[in-house]
Write a structure and sequence with these properties.
Dna Topoisomerase Vi A Subunit, Chain: A, domain 2; Helicase, Ruva Protein, domain 3; single chain; two-stranded antiparallel ribbon; alpha/beta
């Protein structure tokens, strides 16, 4: 793709670096911005820069937040005795969209994967144990994608949490083995949350 302007080329390459955007779409977006008033372009860019510079991670569950503690953890109407353990922020969004869950979350930041060099130390496991140690948690839902690495992670967490009185449950197998949680439809995911079962059964 040939450009008569280095500025246009740099803009296209920036857009094309985003997931799911090819060079043609990047060019279309760049030309669209070029035809917009400069003030409108600035209004478009301002929230993105503000988000990138000011976003925080919840000190309790590691969710993204505008404050030190996220809106879910600070919501007194939610069930604070229930923690749903997930891999990523996208899993939180997927479960929240089901409207079937009113407890809290804990984002691990991934799963144990020896092939990729990810061990327990690289995940948010110590903070989960600290939360459970306080004695307020009655149930921990392992809402982790049913892959080999996911099952390994659930097994490891179950061993680490075995000494505590909290019940450990997993999603019902409406979620197929090997599937990614974020791609499950809301109805299936909602039913899996509602029909969760004790881990190991």
């Amino acid at each position: 793709m040939n450009f008569s302007s280095k500025l246009i080329e740099d803009s296209v390459n920036s857009f094309a670096s985003l997931p799911g955007i090819g060079k043609k779409t990047a060019l279309r977006l760049t030309l669209h911005l070029l035809n917009m008033p400069a003030e409108t372009t600035e209004l478009l860019c301002e929230p993105i820069l503000k988000m990138r510079n000011n976003i925080q991670f919840c000190s309790t569950c590691h969710n993204i937040s505008d404050q030190p503690v996220c809106s879910i953890c600070s919501d007194k109407a939610r069930d604070h005795s229930l923690i749903c353990v997930v891999e990523s922020l996208r899993d939180v969004m997927a479960i929240e969209n089901t409207n079937q869950y009113r407890g809290l979350f804990h984002i691990l930041g991934g799963v144990i994967s020896p092939i990729e060099g990810i061990g327990p130390a690289e995940l948010n496991i110590s903070t989960l144990i600290e939360r459970v140690q306080k004695g307020e948690v009655k149930e921990i839902i392992m809402a982790i994608s049913p892959t080999i690495d996911g099952e390994t992670t659930i097994f490891y967490l179950a061993k680490q949490l075995a000494e505590f009185p909290a019940n450990i449950t997993t999603l019902a197998r409406g979620i197929s083995f090997g599937g990614e949680l974020e791609y499950a439809d809301e109805l299936t995911l909602g039913r899996s949350i509602a029909s969760r079962r004790p881990y190991g059964q």
